[in-house]
From TrEMBL:
Name of protein: Glutamyl-tRNA(Gln) amidotransferase subunit A
Species name: Diaphorobacter aerolatus
Record GO cellular component, one term: glutamyl-tRNA(Gln) amidotransferase complex
First-level EC class: ligase
Subunit structure: Heterotrimer of A, B and C subunits.
Gene Ontology molecular function: ATP binding; glutaminyl-tRNA synthase (glutamine-hydrolyzing) activity; transferase activity
SUPFAM superfamilies according to UniProt: Amidase signature (AS) enzymes (SSF75304)
PROSITE patterns noted in UniProt: AMIDASES
Pfam families, A to Z: Amidase
Gene: gatA
Length: 494
């Protein structure tokens, strides 16, 4: 194995890097040092919130030792990744990008962290996000904004904006993200990378700081569908002893069907995803990607998801209601931020939460508490749950006519920093990702071209329950026919 420097490691996909590590053409320590150096060189992006070189290099040395001894069958042995700061980690602080968790160090790792470590991954550090995963622009972080590597005057999307920006800028080959209402798919679209949210319950939520428990789901973000398939294979599987929402569905190798032909695949095109709110530049890119699918043998089928527009009010009742309950544990008593001056316990609660939470988090807690309060539960929360069931039924009706549903991941390309200061404008930008989240369906975003200002556009693919392999196959075949996923921001070449 050569000990010379490898200056182009960041140009490799996660799968390519894994192959080189397995072949001993590069060491895990070399790879880790290379990406740590890049993270430092591009710290102005705001993507990383914590790095610990000693921890990372110790993990890399252990991976090298296992590979050298021939003791590692781990599919991702020695591959460096990073985790969204919503996953607790015993070797790195976890803040959920909030002042409320300043200084918190978990005594255990989240299941997703453990499973990826078991697959051989080395942790580079923790990635920035919207506070408690609440936001669509990564402007709600108490640690600082994240910039889009394609244009640093624009947002990277949220809430997994740090993960998306780090991958797009080639600071890390893969990362974890979480998706409650589109927080993997929308930033993947804005940053020109690939990301997938699996079926709700396929990936354990243990150790993932809860926002909305019936919606939150972990998933991988990377350059390619193949990379995501490798990571997702390690992430999925039952976790019944630690996560009551974990499904009893066996782990699966999602790489096995990547090369299947798309001949005869029925792709549903929902009319509601192509209305007046869709920007013309985004529509042009999506139409181009759909034509590529037709060339690959797929058939486009018009479908309807009639309750799409109701997904926004339904989501912004259910998610805040669950958040108001989940975030009640952050009160300054046992861990995290506590107000310095207070008169009694109630005053300590009030001042701690007023100081510790950001504006968007407070807004959602207040909304959630309101809709759960006496006299409003039936009128708002219960009605929202009924409509949620109807939205899920709409998808099941559509899947009788198609195998996969395709459309835009977001109505526009990434907007300017501070460009949507009105909270409602941010909420409306989630129109295409919310329905699949409410239904618990798997969905992903795949690079599909470029729009206004040369900014990336993502194609959203939605599958039926447990059909992640088909989604990844469709995404992989599109990536074999196009090169959008290979293009990179000019800044990442430095």
């Amino acid at each position: 194995m050569s000990s010379t420097s490898h200056s182009d490691l960041h140009d490799l996909s996660l799968a390519q890097l894994a192959a080189k590590l397995k072949a001993r053409e590069v060491s895990s320590v070399e790879a880790a040092q290379h990406f740590l150096a890049r993270a430092k060189a591009h710290d102005d992006l705001g993507a990383f919130v914590d790095i610990n070189e000693d921890v990372t290099l110790a993990q890399a040395r252990a991976a090298d030792a296992a590979l050298a001894a021939g003791n590692s069958n781990a599919p991702l042995a020695g591959v460096p990744i990073a985790h969204k700061d919503l996953f607790v980690t015993k070797d790195f602080p976890t803040t959920a990008a909030s002042k409320m968790l300043t200084g918190y160090q978990s005594p255990f790792d989240a299941t997703m962290v453990t499973r990826l470590a078991d697959a051989g991954c080395v942790t580079l550090g923790k990635l920035n996000m919207d506070e408690f995963a609440m936001g669509s622009a990564n402007e709600n972080s108490a640690i600082g904004k994240v910039l889009n590597p394609w244009d640093r005057t624009r947002v990277p999307g949220g809430s997994s904006g740090g993960s998306a920006a780090a991958i797009a800028a080639r600071l890390v080959p893969g990362a974890t993200g979480t998706d409650t209402g589109g927080s993997i798919r929308q930033p993947a679209s804005f940053c020109g990378i690939t990301g997938i949210k699996p079926t709700y319950g396929r990936a354990s939520r243990y150790g993932m700081i809860a926002f909305a428990s019936s919606l939150d789901q972990a998933g991988p973000m990377a350059r390619t569908a193949e990379d995501c398939a490798l990571m997702l294979s390690a992430m999925c599987g039952p976790d019944p002893d630690r996560d009551s929402t974990s499904l009893d569905t066996p782990a699966e190798d999602f790489t096995l069907r990547l090369h299947d032909s798309l001949a005869g695949l029925r792709i549903g095109i929902p009319e509601e995803f192509f209305g007046d709110g869709l920007a013309t530049d985004v529509r042009a890119a999506i139409d181009g990607a759909l034509k590529e699918y037709e060339k690959l043998g797929a058939k486009l089928v018009p479908i309807s998801l009639p309750r799409t527009e109701l997904s926004i009010p339904v989501y912004y009742i259910i998610a805040p209601a669950e958040a108001s309950s989940n975030l009640s544990r952050f009160d300054g008593v046992k861990f995290g931020h506590r107000a310095k001056e207070y008169t009694d316990l109630l005053d300590m609660y009030k001042k701690t939460r007023a100081e510790g939470f950001g504006d968007e988090v407070k807004r959602r807690i207040i909304i959630g508490t309101y809709v759960l309060s006496h006299g409003y539960y039936d009128a708002y929360y219960l009605q929202a749950q009924k409509i949620r069931r109807m939205i899920a039924d709409d998808f099941q009706s559509a899947f009788k006519e198609c195998d996969v549903i395709a459309g835009p991941a977001a109505p526009t390309v990434a907007w300017a920093l501070g460009g949507k200061s009105d909270p409602l404008a941010n909420y409306l930008a989630d129109i295409y990702t919310l329905p699949a989240s409410l239904a618990g369906l798997p969905g992903m975003s795949v690079p599909a071209g470029f729009g206004e200002g040369g900014m990336p556009v993502g194609l959203q693919l939605i599958g039926n329950y447990f059909d992640e392999a088909r989604l990844l196959n469709a995404a992989h075949q599109l990536q074999k026919a196009t090169d959008f996923h290979l293009r990179q921001p000019a800044t990442s070449a430095k």
